[in-house]
Amino acid sequence: MTLTAQHRTTILEVAREARASKTSVSRYFSEERKRLSPDMQARIAAAACHLGYRPNQMARSLKGGHSGLIGMLVADIRNPFSVAVMHGVEQACREHGLSLMVCNTDNDPAQERERLALLATYRVEGLVINAAGSPDRELQAWVEEGIPLVLLDRELSDVDAEFVGLDNAQAIDLALDHLQAQGYGDLLYLSEPTDQASPRQVRLTCFLQGVAARGLDGEVHCQPLMEHDALQRAIGDFLARSGKRHRALLCANGNATLAAIRALQTLGARLGETGLMGIDELDWCKLITPGITTLAQPTEAIGRSAVACLMALLSDSTTTTLRRHAPELIVRGSTQCPAP
Amino acid sequence: MTLTAQHRTTILEVAREARASKTSVSRYFSEERKRLSPDMQARIAAAACHLGYRPNQMARSLKGGHSGLIGMLVADIRNPFSVAVMHGVEQACREHGLSLMVCNTDNDPAQERERLALLATYRVEGLVINAAGSPDRELQAWVEEGIPLVLLDRELSDVDAEFVGLDNAQAIDLALDHLQAQGYGDLLYLSEPTDQASPRQVRLTCFLQGVAARGLDGEVHCQPLMEHDALQRAIGDFLARSGKRHRALLCANGNATLAAIRALQTLGARLGETGLMGIDELDWCKLITPGITTLAQPTEAIGRSAVACLMALLSDSTTTTLRRHAPELIVRGSTQCPAP
DNA sequence: GCTGCCTATGGAACCGTTCCCATCGTAGCT
DNA sequence: AGCTACGATGGGAACGGTTCCATAGGCAGC
Q1: Where are the alpha helices (DSSP H) in chain A?
Q2: Which domain holds residue A190?
Q3: Would you say residue B1 lies in a domain?
Q4: Protein residues bordering strand C (Cβ below 7 A)
Q5: Do both B176 and B87 map to the same domain?
Q6: Which of A85, A225, B314, B329 suits a disulfide with A259, CB 3.0-4.6 Å?
Q7: Which helix (H) or strand (E) holds B164?
Q8: How many domains does chain A have?
Q9: Three-class SS of residue A208?
Q10: Are residue A176 and residue A159 in the same domain, yes or no?
Q11: CA of A269 to nearest chain B CA: how many angstroms apart?
């Protein structure tokens, strides 16, 4: 029966022990410490340390209105891209003295709504959103209440908020330029169904336009990656078809790249001879012989600029931060087309 | 000049609009809804909906003492293992009506202390700790204040708290049994320096004992994985040494596996002929030809049982949950020793 | 010595809830 | 009818801070 005294010391107790008023103790722990006499400061410091006092952030934000919290909605926490961006967001928050409250939604719009409501009850001061569905109605309410809001990676048409993420048009251009330069002329674009996810839509559109503009052959396969057989059949058909140009696969994201490699291995295709290139750099891309060519997203930078955006909105400043970030091309063996 | 009314509606406003008292509205939003008359309920529902009311969790926890928050300290958020466990923790929290506040510490003990203090100010009701350093003093304070605390993956000797994680001894046994059965008799164990990280220590010790018990040859390389040259030299020496038994590498975690594959590729070793096996299943393990044999940790289960543990401590119940989880052996080509 | 200002400090109201206790009406019982 | 019991509701004191305003003392200037 360990009936522990579940009691956190309060400001009043510190005040008593330090022979001061709670106002003074409060001043000590906010930014007004310098207004106190050295003697008073010493007494409070001693008392607080002795009692192990920690200000109650809940009470603090109740009166002051500042929760010190930034909320973040992540569509899929198990996606390394999301985690990397989140890492950047967290670092930037810390530098601004804010804490991050992350909610994963597992790509479920219902959970998304739910978690959004939750974040509202904690009175977060800003929101970074990587949405799965389109909770436009809910978000618009936030906007109208004046709460800063940044859309990450995925745009939402009906919400009047800033967007931060990859410059998808530039990415696809870069990819097509590279593939063409390497001698690939017949392309298969692999993506999960575009659904509501704006980057998928943008990338797909850019691919189709870019292929046409360059006079390349371009095909598209947009099916759930879990349907492994369909994917394999599509790739098999693509490779088997007659044609005189070298063939390459362009994968819309890391998951697609993973699935493509699996399929190509099953089909016995040789990477390089069949070109392969993907958006998103993952740590295993250099391990698959002969290395997978990728477009790396500047994840840290994206995360940080999301917070920068938020801070700008909070302080009403007009400093603009970079919103659409350029990818970095990492060339490896999977796009080295062997000379005929 | 959009001077938005940064004003969240309060319980009092809802009460006024519903012609009720704040007590009744409060009851409506807590678990006492059934005590209200149907008419009253309807009025409150209408008013709340109309005004877009959301209870203020800050005020709520100030009065009630229940923040509804669980804190989690993660040593390295970019480690897929950590993320997978975190996912389990989050799900379990949600099922219990709790929210998760995750703090990443980037393996930095100083940050660890800092984030721990932060979580204290938010009055989290429980703590899941995957520690980098050994903030024993701080944690012991939590324990003494009666705040439930669970150590995840990494144990701390001086803290009187529950541990949840992999059954490391069983994992190493399983690995050695498998390697021996596959005909490998000369083993190199690859790990990052054990430092404070308890699972690394345990795994290493078990390896040494297990090797001795089985009459196998066992060597160890415990250096930072970033020192790629040293690693490669060590592996090279290991492979070049004369001996009549088949050789295999056993990797202590996912990072070690990654580094080992890189080194083996550079050395031109053939997987299988040189055995390779690692703890931690990662999505690319099946992609590297001929597939990497792994011991998968039941990450979801570990995360969930961490929360279960916490809940048990919170409710003072004596139900015990599984603490040390069994790994799952996933056999692939990297441990198929070709017949001589 | 009096006024005036500035610094160090304290008192008390307030932030948005919860919860204890009081009130009121009515149904059930003797 | 009178009393109790109970169900529905409201009033007001917390919770642990912040912050406005008041006060006390010290010192310069006249």
Answers
A1: 11-17, 22-29, 38-51, 57-64, 80-95, 109-121, 136-144, 168-181, 198-214, 228-240, 254-267, 299-314
A2: 168-296+328-335
A3: no
A4: A 19-24, 27, 35-37, 39-40, 59, 62-63; B 8, 10-12, 22-23, 26, 29-30, 53-56, 59-60, 62-64
A5: no
A6: A225
A7: strand B162-166
A8: 3
A9: helix
A10: no
A11: 13
Banded model confidence at residue B321, pLDDT cuts 50, 70, 90: confident
* pLDDT value of residue A6: 62
Quick one: which of B97, B158, B105 has its CA closest to B128?
B105
Residue B187 inside a domain? The answer is: yes
Nearest DNA or RNA nucleotide to B64 (CA to C1'): C18
Contact A79, A290 (CB under 8 A): no
Are A102 and A125 part of one and the same domain? yes
| CATH number of the domain to which B105 belongs | 3.40.50.2300
Point out the nucleotide closest to A60 (alpha carbon to C1′).
D17
Question: Distance between CA B221 and CA B188 in Å, rounded?
Answer: 7
Residue pair A236/A268 in contact by the 8 Å Cβ criterion:
no
Residue at A26 is within a domain: yes
Any idea which nucleotide's C1' is nearest the CA of A23?
C10
- Cβ pair B259, B231 in contact under 8 A: yes
Judge whether B4 lies within some domain.
no
Nucleotides of strand D lying closer than 7 angstroms to a protein CB: 7-12, 14-20
pTM, to two decimals = 0.91
pLDDT band at residue A83 under the 50/70/90 scheme: very high
What's the pLDDT tens digit per position in A140-197?
Answer: 888 888 889 999 998 887 788 889 999 999 999 999 999 999 999 999 999 999 877 7
Is the same domain home to B317 and B293? no
Verify that B159 and B83 share a domain, yes or no: yes
Cβ distance A38 to A30 under 8 Å? Answer: no
What residues form DSSP beta bridges with B14? none
**Whether residue A256 sits in one domain with residue A204:** yes
Question: Are the beta carbons of B115 and B105 closer than 8 angstroms?
Answer: yes
Residues B23 and B76 in one domain: no
Residues from chain A contacting residue B146 (CB–CB below 8 Å): 2, 4-6
B150 and B252 housed in the same domain? no
Q: How far apart are CA A156 and CA A152, in angstroms?
A: 10
In whole angstroms, D23 C1' to A53 CA is 29
